[in-house]
Amino acid sequence: MSTNNANATHATDEVDVALVGAGIMSATLGAMLRELEPSWSQMIFERLDGPAQESSSPWNNAGTGHSALCELNYTPEKNGKIDISKAVNINEKFQVSRQFWAHQVNNGVLSDPQDFIAPVPHVSFGQGQEQVDYLRRRYEALGANPLFPGMEFSDDKSVFAEKLPLMAEGRDFDAEKTAISWIDEGTDVNFGALTDQFLTAAKASGTEIRYGHEVKNLTRDGKKWKITVKNVHTGDTQVIKANFVFVGAGGYALDLLRKAGVPEVRGYAGFPVSGMWLRCTNEELIEQHAAKVYGKAKVGAPPMSVPHLDTRVIDGEKGLLFGPYGGWTPKFLKEGSYLDLFKGIRPDNIPSYLGVAAQEFGLVKYLVEEVTKSFDGRMEALREYVPEAKNEDWETIVAGQRVQVIKPTAAPRFGSLEFGTTLINDLDGSIAGLLGASPGASIAPAAMIELLERCFGEHLIDWSDKLYEMIPSYGTKLAGDEKLFTEMWDFTQKTLKLER
């Protein structure tokens, strides 16, 4: 319902479930709830004119299918030992993603897995004796865990050259010790295509998707929520009532949860981090590389800026990216406002900001260095991975915008910069939102299962059979059940067409 009067406000529809944002999180939750409660009506609001145009866009993220196979920041060294707990936790969650996607393929919700997921080896890269030693110990720690089958390690330059010919060409292996560890059964995921398939099925099932509609406010109305929505093209405003609201609005989620008066976000703040990629334009070079290669991050760098040389498969075309290079802008979304950061400062989160400012000098220094880096400077960083890289074979593209969560803590720290994904919900479970960045999209099904447990606990007994259909390992840690892991792995490999 709309009108030419830009100041008009209309109280219109009522809906059971309102989803804010047409990205992978809303798409995943909507798919789950359609299967669990097909009679519940759903509506999606998206401020842009299409789905998956922010963090879910394939050019705005690495598409790694984060399962901690190669990301070294998930296996930190503590007191001389490799801590694999975070890697195991993230891998467990990615197995949930694989199972849910496979189930949706079998149900006809997802039409073609080859449009959104492709097999790409995941490789960890170590340079110098210290990193090589670390990589070997990491391999030994992870290789003993069922979730990391077939992991291999080598410090032999001939093996390196065979696996990574583009990275081997021109490399002086005698000057610096080099090693790699790898798992061939890694994946590349196009979360934009995945979101699009989910939302195509949602629309066919009766979900109304309103693109070009921005949620401006959320207020309680008894046991319901009043959602004030603005048509960004006409200026018309509508008020929609909903029983449950999910705020999957990326960097704008925190502000909307504040407007909704959710007490659980008091003291929370956001720190925006942007980035850029180098994208290869030479088809011959692209064909020489077939892996996602992750190295060690520089001191002070946020996890999203861990350097990696990435094979991508987007819309059937193979590509090659390197980066990301950290950047900074006060925007909370790529298509956001330069006033976002300043609008996000509140009296209750000023201590959080100040606490992080005092603690994270290394991060600030890193971002300043990255922002001032020239194209030639970015190419020099690339040559640590591709020694023979030529400027004319690469171009710069802007990556997505991320908002790292600043969590309030007690004195003397006051604030802690969080690099994970944080789910926030109010006490009665009628509203929830997702904050943070990596591993983000890769663990969307696990995050949404957690949301269901928190917000719809009274339905879980009735939903249990369906939940086990969606995720056969639901409630089980696969790291402790090698037989079940193998069954789930074989099932998802076949269903998602990942078998080589």
Automatic annotation (TrEMBL):
It catalyses: (S)-malate + a quinone = a quinol + oxaloacetate. Keywords: FAD, Flavoprotein, Oxidoreductase, Tricarboxylic acid cycle. It comes from the Bacteria. GO terms for molecular function: (S)-2-hydroxyglutarate dehydrogenase activity; L-malate dehydrogenase (quinone) activity. Pathway: Carbohydrate metabolism; tricarboxylic acid cycle; oxaloacetate from (S)-malate (quinone route): step 1/1. Its cofactor is FAD. Belongs to the MQO family. NCBIfam families: mal_quin_oxido, PRK05257.2-1, PRK05257.3-2, PRK13339.1. This is Probable malate:quinone oxidoreductase. It comes from Corynebacterium halotolerans YIM 70093 = DSM 44683. The lineage of its organism: Bacteria, Bacillati, Actinomycetota, Actinomycetes, Mycobacteriales.
